[in-house]
Amino acid sequence: MSEERIADPVQMDVFSNRLLAIAEDMGSILIRSSFSSNIKERRDCSTALFDARGRLIAQADHIPIHLGAMIGAVETILARCPLDAMKPGDAFIANDPYLAGGSHLPDISIITPVHHEGVVRFFCGNIAHHADVGGRTPGSTSGVSRSIFEEGIRIPVIRIARAGEIDEDLLELIVCNTRDPEERLLDLRTQVGTNLRGGAMLLQLVDRMGWTAVAQAIEDILTYTRRRLRNRIAALPDGEYRFARAMDDDGFPGEPVPIVCTARISGDTLELDFDGSGPEARGAINLPDSALKASVYYCVRAVLDPGLMPNQGSIDPIRIRAPEGSIVNPRPPHAVAARAVTSNRLCGAVFGALYQALPPEQSMASCNDSTSAISVSGWHPRRKTTYVYPESMGGGAGAFADRDGMDAVHVHTVNSTNLPAEALELEYPLLLEEYCLVPDSGGAGHYRGGMGMARQIRIRESNTIFSARSDAHIIPAPGVHGGLPSSVTRILRNPGTDREEVLHSKASGLVLEAGETIRVETLGGGGNGDPRERSVESLAADLRQGKVSRAAAERDYGAGKVAEALALRE
After folding, report:
1. Strands, DSSP E only, in 470-567?
2. Which of 21, 334, 448, 525 could form a disulfide with 398 if both were Cys (CB 3.0 to 4.6 A apart)?
3. 520 touches 454 (CB < 8 A)
4. What contacts 247, CB < 8 A, 6 or more positions away?
5. Residue 142 near residue 338 (C-beta atoms within 8 A)
6. Is 113 in a helix, a strand, or coil?
7. What is the C-alpha separation between 322 and 39, in angstroms, rounded?
8. Cα 246 vs. chain centroid, distance in angstroms?
């Protein structure tokens, strides 16, 4: 076998798609079979395949930030357990960022070795965000946790199954440290079973092709992917490109925290350096190593080659530097529960740096670069147990040089869906009062930034606990090439009443009574190009569809152009 040449390009391409099909099938099984709405409806889960050396060979298109945690779990397993000590039917469980390469505690990984003729040939991996894993605050994602010990049960790499038998005592210990043991129990069993199905499909593939051909095909796809990414990097002009974004604060009210990325391109090598980023946060917005890596890997693929196969070859050419003791490389036991907020802001910095190396016609303004997540918990009168409802909301995407940004989408490393209104009201004692786009939220420009979204929820049972982990309540998404910035995010308690209260982005543990409402309005994306260059037809459509108010349009585009647009609309 050779890493210098591709033995059979046709077989390589067919084999790569077979691997991807297996990973996607695993994801479909996990989603369809899970009990919790966060997995079966919001699809907050991911699947991947690894070889016996721990190299990623396929990843399904689910949640990009999950990739780092699965890689971290596999690396930890290999460091702690020799391959010959693994038996058919074994499975490992892990979630801890500092002990097992995890992302944050609610993301629990299940990794299963796959044996062929008595030898470990692959690992099947899946990860799912569990609605609660214990800790101080329901949902286990409070942005104001000061240490990982407040965030839930910590699981190092440990066998959850031995020779095909699940360790019921360990399973019971884990689920009883959460607020909804039945939901955790059923979802974890589904995760274990998902990998068994993936392993069976891999063995069918080996039986069909033969191990020698499979081993060569793996080397071929990694070689091809590595070469392709190096070619993309080599096509960029050498140099240093720097871009900075900032968090509103470090989890508690205070000064903004910078996230700085310097991209260094030299030939076919790419280094991303985060020197200059802020110190470790007091709150839970620190970004652990696995989440940092996953964020960077996603960014490079998204900007330089979106069609690149997600495997080890797309990782090898990238070098990452992150100062120890910074918000992007925290030391234990710093809290990390709200790491997705920082991950998305970091992606905005990486995008901004890489786009400087590309032609202006390929530019994109900053996206919302955030994820506004809430957690609602209380007593479920029908199920007679505590429920935890998690939700993460997207916002506007940045405008491109040739089109408007997309409205109300998740960007970067969070790719879950929103829970449908029908499912929300069926599963929980809550009422979704409004679900809409936010007017005037996208930054004005030749091309307008995408719009943010709003969800307003009414509480139906007293003593309901609400928490949020959000950002961009102060700092908007900037525009590019003269485009204007977006709106900012707002979280309101009892909006439109004499009890209206604007909440901090990391509001935690608020006790709500029946009849109270919570409204989240997310920011849009930045605009691209001078607003004066926007066509009258596009502005007329914005006004007609209610995406832009007349007052905002006159402020950003000018009263004369608005008058033309209104005349055209009529």
Report:
1. 490-493, 501-502, 510-512, 517-521
2. 525
3. yes
4. 256, 257, 259, 278, 281, 285, 327, 341, 342, 345, 471, 475
5. yes
6. strand
7. 32
8. 18
* Residue 122, beta-bridge partner list: 51, 114
Question: In DSSP terms, which residues pair with 458 in a beta bridge?
Answer: 431, 517
> Token pair of 111, please?
């990794």
* Other beta carbons within 10 Å of 35: 17
Q: How many beta carbons lie within 10 A of that of residue 117, not counting itself?
A: 8
Give the model's confidence band at 7: pLDDT under 50 very low, under 70 low, under 90 confident, else very high.
low
Sequence-separated (6 or more) residues with CB below 8 Å from residue 404: 442, 447, 448, 449, 450, 538
Residues paired with 459 in a beta bridge: 430
Q: Is the pLDDT of residue 1 over 60?
A: no
DSSP secondary structure code for residue 497 in this structure: S
| Both structure tokens of 404 | 């408007």
Looking at the whole model, is its pTM more than 0.90? Answer: yes
Check residue 213 and give left, alpha or beta (phi > 0: left; psi -120 to 50: alpha).
alpha
Residue whose pair of structure tokens reads 């298109």 in the numeric block: 61
Residue 2 has pLDDT above 60, yes or no: no
Indicate if the pLDDT at residue 86 is higher than 60. yes
Rounded Cα distance between 350 and 318, Å, is 13
Residues 427-461: pLDDT tens digits? Answer: 999 999 999 999 999 999 999 999 999 999 999 99
In degrees rounded to 5, what are phi and psi of residue 182?
-60, -45
- CA-CA-CA-CA torsion for 139, 145, 148, 152, nearest 10 degrees? -20
Q: Which pairing describes strands 269-273 and 318-321: parallel, antiparallel, or unpaired?
A: parallel
